[in-house]
């Protein structure tokens, strides 16, 4: 007889798999309950599987910011051509061609939020972008298999032009994912409040520096690739796109010159460091608040062109109205994200103010 069964416990491979699938915060409590009720491997596995959807749904409600999920959806919808008007003779509508990889990527991002560990903002953003890219590729792989099996037509595949455009969703998703990251670096043991403030500010300064470098790299990559596409293909959106390229280039210069947080050595004494930290929290939040509008600004143009203007030109008032509603919803998501981040900044500033100055 299996030694695991003689001990009255579940088989190790099944227990390891169930443990892996349970969201981290609930893992220990749920595993303990399952082991207490263990009667057989089949009962254990079936009960664990039945519990999983409730745990994932509950965790998703607590961890998935509505504003960020909405912005992720907008970025995917825009870059995968979901809102593009259908071309003459197109057998599969654009919303279906782009909707499959967009839905796969959004599901992957929601699951990332459910299973997200304590990650630095940079790592969180990169992993979000990687998860979305893998999900999009897997969705296209499934479609290739269905086409090869003769179950669907080849027009279900994402067109080559949209495959290239999908790349531009990744930097935006990385920036949004970075907003969900949390500092995972260990906290050194300190006994004085001034030491704690200095150590915390040094971590904050490092996060800002890494974020700025990542954003400068992403903005530079977007400017270079977008300029190459605009010069080669000269799309109808070029007159609107070139000003954005110039604006992105100006943002690169600004972030390189003014984006970093000043070093802690610029202030002397507990009160000065605390005041510097509070000022820089507010200033960085102001930069972030503005950057969201710049990062997501092209989505407004895409919604206006592909839904509002296309609907008016084709005498489709419903399409135009849907475009107007989508523009308002996109703006509402950005405002909600800035409001949530502003609340966190105010809470942090208030906590710094409440710290007593060392004697």
TL;DR of this structure?
With 359 residues, the chain is mostly helical. The protein contains 13 helices and no strands.
Task: Provide key terms for this protein.
359 residues, mainly alpha, 3 domains, 13 helices, flat, disordered N terminus
Detailed description of the structure:
Helices cover 76% and strands 0% of the residues. The radius of gyration is 25 Å and the shape is flat. By secondary structure, the chain is mainly α.
Oligomer: single chain
Tally the helices: what do you get? 13
Number of E-type strands: 0
H/E element order: HHHHHHHHHHHHH
Main sheet, how many strands, which sense, barrel? none
- Work out the count of structural domains: 3
Mean pLDDT: 85
Helical amount among residues, as a percent range? over 70%
Q: Provide the structure class.
A: mainly alpha
What integer value in Å does the Rg equal?
25 Å
What distance lies between the first and last C-alpha atoms, to the nearest angstrom? 68 Å
The fraction of residues assigned to DSSP E strands is under 5%
Coarse shape:
flat
In terms of per-residue confidence, which ranges show pLDDT below 50 for 5 or more consecutive residues?
1-6
